Amino acid sequence: MKKLIISVGMLILATIIGPGTILASTITDAIYQANIRATNASYTATHVAAPFTWATDSLLDGYYIDSEFNNLAMRDSIGNDIPFMPGQGSDPWIMWIDQIAQNSAINYNLYTGGETAMGGKLAYFPDTAGMSVVDSASLELGNDFEIELSGRFNDGYNLSKFGAFWIYTSGTDVSAGNSSSYTETPYNGTTASATSLYGANWIAQTFQFSNDVAVNQFTFRTQRVGNPTGNFNYAIYATSGDVPTGSALVSGSVVASTISTSAVNHTFDFSNIINLTAGTRYAIVLSLPNGDSSNKLTYWYNPTNPYANGRYYTTNNSGSSWSGTATTDINISITGNANNTIVTAADISSSEHVYKISLSAGTMNIYIDGLLEGSAAFAVSITDNANNLVIGANGSMPYLYYAKITVGGVLKGSWEWQYAATFTDLSGNSNDATPSFRITTTDADVSVAVINYAACNQSAFIVGDDEDAVEIVTDDDLGTMPTGWYVNLHPENLPGGQQITDFLEEMNFPSAFLWLSLAFGGGAIITILSFGLTRKLLPCAVAGLIWQVFWCATIGVPWWVLVPVAVVIIGEMTNRKLASY
Predict the structure, then answer these.
(1) For residue range 538-569, what is the model confidence (pLDDT) as tens digits?
(2) Where does 192-326 show beta strands of DSSP type E?
(3) Which run of H or of E encompasses 177?
(4) Which of 28, 161, 246, 262 lies most in the core, judged by the most C-beta atoms within 10 Å?
(5) 265-282: per-residue pLDDT in tens?
């Protein structure tokens, strides 16, 4: 019985504290703790990037966080580090919520202060535009390069240099490939003209590609008549019955007054790149809502054009209904890049990863978390063009830890989150990046707020000479304090511990009273029960020791409390030894 009690107790102890003892960040010297609460007002939500309001500049000015953002770490209620991004300027902070149950709330802890680097999971959370790097000769990939991306990946172009190279995630597949220019032109002549593009009179041209194409712009022959106000709008739609349907897949606009009064081919960019599927019919819709019969756009069409993959449509009610002729097309060209997949890695789980795509000696490889997952021959160079490099656009990377590009064995670009409007190239090659920052939640039902922010460690403050700055007095500046008698409890290391602590604090009840009562009172109870079962001092002493070790290892009860229990065990063992003679 005695051996059974000891074995079971140690097994329970190992099971409970084992997984939670290894943590990425170090918060021992944290001075402040913010309690942050995420609330879900609807169904269970997963993989949410959510904002919360906190004044970054005020925290910096008050020395609550250092200028390098090293003394920061954010954890969930059981002590696991989570990715987060301090707000740039007046922007909100962004945090990652892996899952939050229906109509529930979860508490998180953000630790700051101190002189020790915490190693928190600082990450860059891009907005729709992602992070762009201006084209540079040093970043041209050629036939010998390595690209490394670390973060979380969603479907979409995780990295793209339009017309040259791309990395794409689709479900559980990760692909990399090159691109070649592709243009679909229903009609490019000037056979006839029409003057009905204004107000509720819109036009559309349907089309389809023979390849999958990433579209970024189109060319339209037109001229401005009079002085229309407002914008010239354009968008690509899916079709049903060969006419536009649903919401715009991609859109854009320009100020109408910027369009030339001469009949020329104008090139217009969409707000972002969109991937269109081969053999699928789409419609490009053009409108000038604020125009009228005297202030409009003129465009050209051919009533006998043989283009087989679409037709010209008109509407006089802003798209509520359309009419068209099978043989008529307008002078328009839709331009993009046909993607050529070189190598694919299959069955990759949706989570945090490190993608590494390399080309060397005529072979392109995909490594996922250091393991080779795909390889293919590719004996040519990646196209050299003037397009920018874009990373994490359109939600393809919810958050990014870092991105690196090596060309010819030399690091040419390296970027990670920085508290700046521009991310400095850490490789020293001046290939600085322009980031867009997420400021909204990815789930409208999930909101986050800072509940409180208070000191959680020994600290003191003095006002500086200018009576504005606050200087932190470190432990070296304080008088000698008795050791071993003061302790910071960490109930967040127990499942549900932080929720219980938050509840007690909201009730103005000291949480330490509960945790210390469980630690010492529970030890007394389990010792008494063990003695009642065995009538032996050694088993009950060991049971009490296991109980105390558990509380010391999890919430931080001081280890010296084990000494009295150990003395009892040693005394009992000595007594048994003497009694055997």
Answers:
(1) 777 777 778 778 777 777 777 766 677 677 66
(2) 192-197, 202-207, 213-225, 231-240, 243-255, 264-276, 282-287, 296-302, 312-315, 323-325
(3) strand 173-187
(4) 161
(5) 999 999 888 889 899 999
